[in-house]
Model the fold of this input.
Amino acid sequence: MWVRVPAAKIGVQVGGAFIDYPVLVAFYSDVVKLFVLIKIGHAKTMKLLLFDIDGTLVMSGGAGKRAMNRAFEQLYGHKNILNDISLSGRTDDLILRDAFRKSGMNMTLSALEAYKKVYFKVVEKEMHIPNHKKRIMPGISRLLPALHEQETVYLGLLTGNWQKSGYTKIRHFDLDRYFPFGAFSDDSSDRSALVPVAVQRFTERHGVHPHPQDVYVIGDTPRDVTAAKPHNVKTVAVAAALYSMDELAKSDPDYLFPDLSDFEKVMDVLG
Done:
C-alpha cells in the first residue's frame, strides 16, 4: 500500500480501490508488518531505502580486497592481482573479470563459480582478523535502528558485492538483521541494472510497487549515484569514505552529506 494525495482528498490505494480519509489500514503477514495511518489533512508516504555496503554502512578494513587477492592466488598462483585494478563502486563480477583479463585468462561461468566458493571462505576468515580499520560508518549505529522502527520505511541493500560476501561483511557488525533483501553482483555485473532488481524483490515481498520518487539509493561513490539516475529514483551521496563532497557533487545527487552522523538532518530526508 502506497499513500497518494490527489487534489481534493487523502486516501490509500488498496488493490484497485481508493479509500478516503479518515481510515486505519493494517496488514500483517509472517514476513511483514505494514501499517498505514491516515489522518484528515495528513498522510505519510512510504520509502524504500537501498544502502550500499562498503564505505556507506561499514569499512571492512580491506578484508574484501585481501580475500579476493588470496583467493585468486590460491587458484591461479598470481599474487596481489587486484593491486592496480579499480574497485570503488564497481561490482565484484567486473572486478574479477579485470583480474582474469590481467592474468591472460577468460572468466568462464565455471571459473567464476569456483572462484566464489574459495573467496567466500577466505573473506569470512578475513572479517574475523582484528583490524583497527574495520568499523561501522559514522551515524549508522543510531540511524538504522531509528529507520527500522519507522512503520513507513523499508530497508534493503544495493551493492556491488556478491550476496554471500556482502552479508558476511555486515553480519560481522550485526547489521544484517536490518536488511532482509537486496540486489547484488550475482544479479548483474551492471550496477545500474541492480535498482530494478531491488525494487522487484521489495514488490515480491510486500505486494506493492513503489513510485520511483519513493525509492532512495544511498552510497559513497559517484557510481552509486550515476547508476541510480536512469531509474528516476532519489540519490543520496555520503562523503565518508574515499570521495570528497566536491567529487560527489559532480555526480549531481539529490542529497549530499559529509557522513550520516547528523541524525536530525538525515532523518528529515530518509525517515
